[in-house]
Amino acid sequence: MSIFENVIKIDSNDNIIFNNWIEWEHFGIPNKPDFLRQILRFLIALSGHCLMCTALDGCFFVERIMPKQPIHEKCDCKKKPVSFYKINNLAQANMPIEKLSKYIFSNDQNSKGKKSLFEKMGYTKDDIYNLQSQFKSQALNRYLSGNYILKNLDNYGQRVAIKITLNNHSFYSGWMLEPEGTIRNTTPFGGWVNEKI
Question: If I label 138, which of 92, 157, 171, 188 is the partner at 20 to 30 A Cα–Cα?
């Protein structure tokens, strides 16, 4: 996949789509280290700043797939253009192995039936590192291509659904957007692609 495929795309109706990337800005919030970011977010919330807005600070969005601005009446958030080159160099996908080892492949009752689903797709607990690698790779590539769906936005941040395909089975996986192009897995299986999510 070339870098241009993530910037310029052709949709199903043969229309050209440009993925213009933006960085969400809310003043005074550092992207790193995370502990300092969280402390400052809660401190400025005491002076009336919105936790939803500060959670989005530093996150990268394709401009056509971002939360609407303003988020609220007193919103002072801004969007600033950011180069895909910068995003491509910073972006990463994080998925704790425990999402697979202690959730998906725990007993079927604790995994809410997900263990059986993954076993039917041909995977066992022995495959967790391979699965982690596939999830991270596919999710990052789809995020960088602008192939994500906005889901819930709350004080913790913006959740997105990203399609994952394993052994010809496609489903949505849940991810949280974090500063500097990081996406963090929140749920490995969020529903089949042909279901309304």
Answer: 157
**Cα–Cα distance between 42 and 23 in angstroms, integer?**
21
d(CA 122, CA 74): 51
Q: What 3-state DSSP class applies to 144? A: helix
Question: What is the spatial distance between Cα 175 and Cα 184, in angstroms, rounded to a whole number?
Answer: 5
Q: Which long-range contacts (CB under 8 A, 24 or more apart) does 188-192 make?
A: 188/95, 188/99, 188/100, 188/103, 188/104, 188/114, 188/135, 188/164, 189/104, 189/114, 189/117, 189/118, 190/161
Cβ neighbours of residue 20 closer than 8 Å, sequence gap 6 or more: 62, 63, 64, 81
Element (H, E) at 94: strand 92-94
Strand, helix or coil for residue 6: helix
pLDDT band at 194 (very low <50, low <70, confident <90, very high): confident
Q: 26-37: per-residue pLDDT in tens?
A: 977 899 889 999
The token pair at 174 is 């849940």
Q: Could you tell me the strand order of the sheet in which 182-192 lies?
A: 92-94, 182-192, 169-178, 157-166, 149-154
